[in-house]
Every structure is written in C-alpha cells, then in structure tokens.
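Incident log, structure service

09:12 report received: a user says their structure output differs between two submissions of the same chain.
09:20 pulled the input from the user's history:
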Amino acid sequence: MNDTAHAQHAPVWPGEWVARRLGVALHGPGIRDLLGLALRHNPKRAHLLVSGVLGKHVPQDPHIVHGTGLRLGERVRDLLGPDAARAVVLGYAETATGLGHCVAEAIGAPCLHSTRRPVRGQAPAGGFEEEHSHHTSHLLLPADPALLAGDGPLVLVDDELSTGRTVRNTLAALHRAHPRAHYVVATLVDMRTDADHAELAKCAAELGATVQVAALARGRVELPADILERAAAVVAEVEARIPAQRHPAQDPTAQAAPAVRVELPWPARVPDGGRHGFTPTHADRLATALPALARTLTDALPAGARDVLVLGTEELIYAPLRLARALADATPGTRVRFSTTTRSPVLPVDDPGYAIRTRLTFPAHDDPADGPGPRYAYNVAGHPWDAILVVTDTPGDTPALHAPGGLLHQLTAHTPHVLLSVVPDRRLPEPLRGPAFSSYAPDEVGWLLQDLSDVTLEAPAEEREEAIQSGGAHYAESLPVEYQPSAEYQALYHSALAASAGRVARAVGTVTEAVLAERPGRRPGRPVLVSLARAGTPVGVLMRRWAQHAHGADLPHYAVSIVRGQGIDTTALRWLAAHHDPADVVFVDGWTGKGAITRELADALAPFPGFDPSLAVLADPGGCVTTYGTRDDFLIPSACLNSTVSGLISRTVLRADLVGPDDFHGGKHYRDLAAADVSGAFLDAVAAHFTDPGTAAGIAADTAALLAADRTPTWDGWRAVERISEEYGIGDVNLVKPGVGETTRVLLRRVPWRVLARRGAGADLDHIRLLAAQRGVPVEETDDLPYSCVGLIHPRYTKGATGADGKAAT
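09:34 re-ran on a clean worker, output below:
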C-alpha cells in the first residue's frame, strides 16, 4: 500500500474538526492517543478535552477503562511508597468518580468522591468550587467524617489537570478543616502551563505541605486569544443545522419505556459507590460478589446479543464499570462497551474528526436532582446495539427515568432490548422486625437497631452506678440486669393497667390527632412515626393503631436509639432520609421528665437538614414540648416494667467496639423472657378503648382544646429539677429523675437514694411505694412539686457506701 492509500485509510484524530476550525492544538507525546476535542455549551471554557479511555463520553472496552484507572493508581502507589497504606482518595464529580475509585482500588485505600447531588438529612462535611464547570459546587458527604480527618496522604483524582485552579480551591478548603503534610494530585493528562505549575507550588508553600502530581501523560493545549468568541459562533452555526429534537413527553400517544428489570444480587453492606465513602473491606466484598453478579447479567441478555452497551448514570461510574468488565469476562463472544450519562452540555457534530458524534437529551431523573437542566448520553445513538443495560442507583430509579421522553424511552430507538439494573445502597443495614427481633408484629415497628442478643452486656446496678458516676463508663455502654417483678408487683401492674388503660387510650388518640392535623406529611395523613426506643415504642405502636382505627391510615413506624450526651443514632437518620422524606418524620416518646431528651434531640438533629426536632409525647409534665396527649403526670403502665412490656427489647446500647460508623446502635432481644411478656396484652388493653364512644368523644374534645391552646413550652419541670438538685446538695441534674415514669426507671435500673412524692398522690404511686419499700428507699411527702413524684439517684455513689435506708453511710 502506497503512502497516499495509507493516509486515506488511517484513523482520523477525533479532534481534527475543532483544531481546524478554531486553531486549537494539543502538544505532548501520546496526548492525541488519549484525547479528542469537542465544543462545550459553556461561556467559561469553550473546548472540551474528550478522553477516549475514561468511559464517560465515548463508549469503550471496560478492560481499557478499568485498566487505565488501575495504571494511574499504580503510579500514585509508587509515588507514596510506604505511606500508601495511610492514604485516602478523593475523586472529583462527576467525570472522575470512577477514575478515583480505580485509583483507590490499586492503592488499597478508602475512597470518597465529591457530589453535586444533595442527600436529604445529611449535612455536608465540606465542599469546594470548580470555577470553569457547568455546575460549580461540589459537596463532600462522607458517612464517617473521620474519613477526611486523618493525617495520612490525601490523593485528589481528576481526569485532566488543565490549570490546577480547582485543585488549589480543594486543597485550601480541605486543609483549613483537616491540615495534613502530604497531598498527591492524580490525573490522566496534565496540561498545565509553567505558570500553572508555579501557582500550585505557591499554594503548597502557603499550606506548608508537599503536593505532588502523578499523570499518565503530560502536554499542553494551545488556544487562540479569541477562542470563546470563535467557539460561540461555531456552536450557533452548527446548532442551527441540527433538527429540533421531538420530546416524546409531548406526544399523548407515547408509552413508558418497556425496560426489563434485572435484579442484582448486590452484596450486603456494600455501598453503591463512593459518594459516602468506600473502604477496602467494601472492595473485597464486591470482588467476591462479581462472578454471581456477572451470571445474573449474562442470563438477562437476549439470546444472540453480540454488541452490548453498559450505561452508567452521571456520578455512578465505578459500580457499572465493574459490572461491565465482569460481564465482558463472562461473555467472551460478546463485544461489551461501557459509558455513562452526564450533565455537561456538549455540541454534537457527526464527523469522524470530532469526538462527540451524537447526543441524546433527556430530563434529570435522580431524586433529589443535583441541579436543574437536561442530561445527556453521547455517542450512544447511531450504533446498532443488540442490548443496552442501564445501571443506576436507587435515587436515580424514579418515574422520570421511565417516563416518555426519559432516558429509557430514548434508548428504545437505538436498541431492541433495554435492560435496567438498580444498584442498591446497602451500606446501611435494614430494620429488624418481629418475631425474629422483638415480640411485636412485623408491621407494628421496624427497629433501626443491631441485634446484640448474643453479647453479655448486663451488670449489677451497683457496679454500673459506680462506673457511671466515676466517669469510667457511659450508661449506654452496658445494660442493667432485667428486673423480674414479684407476684405482688405484677398484681399492682395489672391493677394499674385496668385503671388507666382508658386514660392512656385518650391521650394516644389526642396526640395522634394533633400529629395528623399539624404534621400530615408530604402525603396527607401519612407522617412517618419514629419512636425513641424503648419507652417511646409502645406509644408509637398505639399511635399507629389509632390512625388505622380512626382514619384507615397505615403509618410507617420505626424505633431509633437516642443516648443522653451522645445524641441520636446518625446511621438510623441516614436510613430514614434514604427511605422517606425527613420532613415527614415525627419523633415520638412516652413522656417528658425535665426535658433532657427533648434538648438532646434538637441538638442532635441540627446537622441533619430536613428533620423536625419537635417531639410528640403521650404525657408532657415537664412542659417542654408542643405536641402531647396530656400534660398531667399520670401512671403510664408501660413504665412499670422493662422489656416485658416493650416487645422484649432492652434499653439501647452504644459502645465503640460494638457500633461502627455504619452500624445502628445496639439492643438485645430477651427471648428467654417470653413467658413473662405482656407487650401485646398491654397494647390490646389500651386499644380496646378506641371503640368506646366516650373515649372517642373525649379525644375529639381534647384535640380541639389542644389545637386551640397556647402550648408554648414552659420548662417548669427543668426549673423544678434545678431547685431540687440544689436543695438536696446533689450537684447534677442528671441524677434527678422527675415524673412517675422516670422514678420507676430509677427504682428498676439505678441505685435510688430517695423518692419525693407529691402529698395526696393516689394509686398512681402504689407501685412506686412498693418498689421503694422492697429496695429500702425512703419516700418523702412534699407539697411543692409539679410532678406526682421525683426519683433521686444516689449522688457520689461508691459500692458499699449506703445504709439499709438508702441514705449515704457517712
């Protein structure tokens, strides 16, 4: 073949069209093998360097995409040396999320990527600006903020390093929050000028840190001075020739996309990507699961498929890339290519010398969307794919994805077979339900707890009290021994239940009606009840039963842990935000004492936008909430017992060696106490009054009065507790437990010192007097008390330092 013939058949560089029309030139060894050129719809930067090996804009063999990322990671690993074991990798959204993940895989390091998609209920741990981008703001949303707080090397990964401005912005923002000595910037191509090199060196000097750069290729781009004006004119000229895209959503005869769902056996406790962090342990679990995932996809392909595209969505790149490579390995006779959709608008030109030949445009389909505007898939149209497998995450699987005009619908014009797989976010555990965990029916409550039933956590009250007051342990690190009541005490409980079940039912109905009236949720009549385990859980179940009885509403109900001094279970909050609108969540508890948990809840929810910190309770004698069934301090029989009236579940546990950053707080299911369990009987006894016309009338009257009343919290209870703490020389309000329920807890779980009882309090305190007598605790009658009673925990307790009367043996 002569030179002329060879030239006619040689591949055309996919940047020639832009270079010829705008005078753009790329220089550097191997640069044109990695990059093509296209034009952006972006007034800040006209040209786009289009990578042929990234799998973003150009469908590519997944082996090449994955292998390129691993090769870059190997260079970073060589650069770090022994420090690689301490590194953390941060990839840039959206283009380099997958690349960053591949670098982390090669290093064996945890990774995180920035995101432009906000997450309900999760406040950013940081952020930075990408000034030239179509969408400039990046969020950092690690599930474990400690991921960014270490002092090991931080590796920043982007597909190209053009000026380094974004890197400098990132370094400045992260270094202010978590300074470290060593940074590495990893990129496929380093296109910086000498001046840009100097700016990064200056930045490093100002930070007092080492900043190194690892790249697979280095070069530079040469742009004419009037590039923005010339590009705008060319874009306008080309766009005028592109026929308007008919939007199928405007066609009343258009049908929803007939995509075939392929359910993935995604491994447990593995995230869908690096948006919230991805650890080497996650990587090992995914690698183990890939053969089974590949078999699932292979079985789903249509018979005879030989040309298949795996299409990820925006920031979700790494998971579909690994699936694409596994599919290619499992089907050697099939040509598998990989690409992803994007939010970046790029001009398409159907010319072999241009990198973006075709463009599909469709509405955003993630929820919540990471910004307004359409989304795009490039170089997908125009190829006869036998099948296209779309891989998205749970927030991306919305009606907009399936609607006429959506991504799936558009793909049907380019392949006879559209498949859809949704990668679930399984970094978070699922709720526990009865009868496997608790004696409640499975639809009554989902426990956002982990089962620690096989762990020995119980300790005698005296040992626990000494450890708590000495500062040696937090009360939530252990459990009290479950108190088994005497026959006399059980008789008192049943008598109290018979006497007060109607009163409890009336308060349940009233607080539920108030919740439905004031906080109906996004869908009318459907708030999400979240009870504070465990005292709030029977109340949450009863509220759910009233809503079913009175309104036919099937309210979701979950139980979560909140720990005084430690806050609410943040993993449970993230689970709730992933499955419900945080604005629909109503937190529920049994009663208020002095209001410590009310304040704890408000403080704990401050970093989690969208959640309402208001608390709905059955009884508010402390005057510290606005949604309640009553403000009377009366006996709620469920306070008389421990697990045997609360679904056989323990108080919650929070201990560092048992609860990791992605774990729920713990709890135990006391299955061995099933014979003594009265949980169901308690619920049934109260709910039986729902059908009583007098109860219904009382609920209606109480609700009307409640909604019309001034319910501003008075915090009278807190002031009373401070006064009692001072009068009795206790010096710690946490040792003063006001109200019938809290006093009962003191006598059952702690080392009681004395009980203060309001003079004239009647049968509500019969069980208190019995417990006090059994433990040798004095009961003092008083007139100046806003509660029926107050329990005082022994101050300055040490084992063996109390007398038979419960007073300090001093």
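09:41 both user submissions now match this output. Likely a transient worker issue. Closing.
09:42 reviewer note: The mean pLDDT is 87. The domain at 238-423 is CATH 3.40.50 (Rossmann fold).
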